[in-house]
Amino acid sequence: MRLRARPGRRVAAGAGRPRAAATLPRPASIAAFARITKKRRSGVIDWDEKLAGEGLSFDDILLIPAESGILPKETDVRTRLTSKISLNIPLLSAAMDTVSETSLAIALAREGGLTIIHKNQPVERQADMVRKVKRSEAGMIVDPITLPLTATYGDAESLMNEYRISGVPIVHSDGKLAGIVTNRDTRFETDLSKPITQLMTSENLVTVPVGTTLDQARDMFKVHKIEKLLVVDDDYKLRGLITIKDIMKIIEFPNACKDELGRLRVGAAVGVSKDTAERVRALVDAQVDLICIDTAHGHSRGVLDAVAKIREEYPEIQLMAGNVATATGTKALIERGVNSVKVGIG
After folding, report:
1. Is there a single domain that holds both residue 172 and residue 214?
2. Residue 93 sits in which domain range?
3. What share of the chain has pLDDT > 90, as a percent?
């Protein structure tokens, strides 16, 4: 691969605030760029030359392709974000309030990337976004949302709208399965105060035992022509839920970034402030996959102390911190216990 400057480009006359712009011949631009870069690496910078010399922007460089026998379908862009989190595409979303919330987190994880949900919001709202992503799909939902026998149609409607689900299992106080209410049961209902027991399906429930595989579940869906399978133990207590929608998503999004339970992965940002401990605790309880200490200057005492404290309290959590722009800053974060470092300021 060779670097080549575009002919006739107008290149800024400085790396800081440009004093002028000039049309430079290709060799001069590349040579100047290489000369300055070499001096930077050696630790010696001629500031007169740096400020008076040439600079190159992204648009000034072309990557010239070379001969290759690799087809696009044969490429593999998988990478590791941490030792425990793999990405099928090397793409993360920025922890910005105009970018990273529930919808993007679900969409990006389905394609193989990861979203860092922003921290510019109340603690519980951020934790709720994490929960929605984790519940959006799974091979088997191990902790399905349920309602008690005392619930009303209004309770079920509110829950299904909030989590965008089409059915809710109904359980006894001891956790034993009582029935299930779905959109089919409530399609023409208008009385929000009606007891859920008058709407739910409680007889001839199709259940499967703990340990049922997704292939076995798919066969059950085909035979019984249903959309949800209730997973119960020997005491008929509800232990999970398998939906046809999740199986179809596995087929549709084979490269999705998922955890060991088949749930989409998601990260969340925290800062260095008085609510950091509370925010981290809420995110861990929501089963976030990665916590990112997100600041403009990651090589600061506050960030280093926060990393050490979080690592001590949550030794298993995957932790990212930044931003840093030096080897010293990167090393300091690693020594405090991060699993991944955000590099780059600007």
Report:
1. yes
2. 74-137+264-343
3. 69
